[in-house]
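Handout, section B. The chain below has 231 residues.
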Amino acid sequence: MSAEMDEFDDIKPVVTEDELPAGEAILWQAKPDWWRLALTAYRLRLVGIWFLAFALWKIGATHHDTGSWAAGFADAATLLPALGLGVGLIMLLAFVTARATSFTLTPRRLVMRYGVALPAQLNIPLGEIDHAALKLNSDGSGDIPLAIGKAGRPSYFQLWPYARPWKFGSAQPMLRAVPDAAAAARLVSDALVASQGGKRPAMPEPKPAAGARSGVRKAKAGFSGARPAAV
């Protein structure tokens, strides 16, 4: 069975045990950190840098025209309301996006539920995940992109903001802004290996440093088991 993408008019943002087939339990469940989501998916830093660059340009241009630094800073200060509005909207969007999102891991599948206006669900059998990787941030949060087969693979824009950046032609779903990402990656790695009946040596703890990466890989394995009605 391949990964399946569904959209619903109304769906609970969090998978519950009663939605799973008999005997299938939740191993791990989390929501993304909204602040890290604002910084990464919604590029809050870039918005701040753009406003700063524009403010510096206005200061320089006004000083050049008037010879007054005070007039330059006063002119740049007119950007503050727009900056506050832009930052506030991005933070609000990141917050409601995180509230509407959940990542759920079971021994058979990984389920992503997300979407504010139109909730969607991506059900990924563990046997369809070729490999996973981990990118840690300095605060311990991180991203876990998943490489899956072509069959049933959603498009980049269907997955966003939970798509691996710049993978337009071969979109990869990504558990984004996951709190305590190193522990989450270990659980995902264990579940992937267990799903094919294999074992692996203990994975060393990655250090929570910006840009650090730790990869976990498994061989392709078939998926068996009934798919629940909602999951």
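Note. Helices lie at 34-40, 44-66, 69-77, 80-99, 156-159, 181-195. Compare this with the example in section A.
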